[in-house]
Amino acid sequence: MNMEINTSAKETVDSLKKIFDKHKNDRICIMATTCCGKSTLHELIPETVDMDDELWPQLTEEEEAHLCQKPWTKEIGDFAGRLVRERVTVKPGHPLFTLILLDCEVLIYLDISDELLAEHCKKRQADFQDAKNVKDAIECTWNKQREKNDKVCYYLKITE
Questions:
Q1: What is the pLDDT of residue 7?
Q2: Cis (ω within 30 of 0) for the bond into 71?
Q3: Could you give the CA distance from residue 24 to residue 42 in angstroms, rounded to a whole number?
Q4: Based on the number of CB atoms within 10 Å of its own CB, is 70 exposed (0-12), middle (13-18) or buried (19 or more)?
Q5: Could you tell me how many helices (H) and strands (E) the chain has, helices first?
Q6: In the beta sheet, which residues pair with residue 106?
Q7: Which of 17, 36, 81, 155 is an S-S bond match for 112, by CB 3.0 to 4.6 Å?
Q8: DSSP label at residue 16
Q9: Cα-flanking dihedrals φ and ψ of residue 118, to 5°?
Q10: Gap between the Cα atoms of 26 and 38, Å rounded
Q11: Residue 106: what pLDDT?
Q12: Mean pLDDT across the stretch 28-48?
């Protein structure tokens, strides 16, 4: 099943809560790039989990240094993916905001236009190209999962 929804911030929270309630017994991954509002949404929806909160306390200094290299590359993304899959799990009733797809029954993709992403990156003084590279990798994962058709997939477009 694939569903597409365009949303403002309040609508995003409301849409996510409805999806979470509908799938309260399933493991849910919410995938989105950096600088698109995952942390803000996590703060607004208490039962959610942030991948960074789960992963970063478990990293060695060497692993953290490797992940923080600039610019972001596919190699860094592959390394991050391995660490996340080894150390983070998705639990029913605790949807996970993530950059990396983990075992789940429900997948939500929070998309953001390149223009809006550039605005968010500028506000956070973050590198747009890094955020765009992560976005492209997530979209590739998203498209592969939709083709597999083995998960319930929701697409939400962030509009502000």
A1: 55
A2: yes
A3: 16
A4: exposed
A5: 7, 6
A6: 28, 152
A7: 36
A8: H
A9: -60, -40
A10: 20
A11: 97
A12: 92
Which helix (H) or strand (E) segment holds residue 58: the answer is: none
SS3 71: coil
Q: How far apart are CA 144 and CA 55, in angstroms?
A: 25
Lookup: tokens for 28: 């849910």
Per DSSP, the three-state class of 113 is coil
CB 29 within 8 A of CB 90: yes
pTM comes to 0.88
149 vs 21 pLDDT, higher one: 21
| Confidence at residue 159, expressed as pLDDT on a 0 to 100 scale | 83
Strands 152-158 and 106-112: parallel
Amino acid identity at 81: G
Element (H, E) at 15: helix 9-22
Residue 114 pLDDT exceeds 50: yes
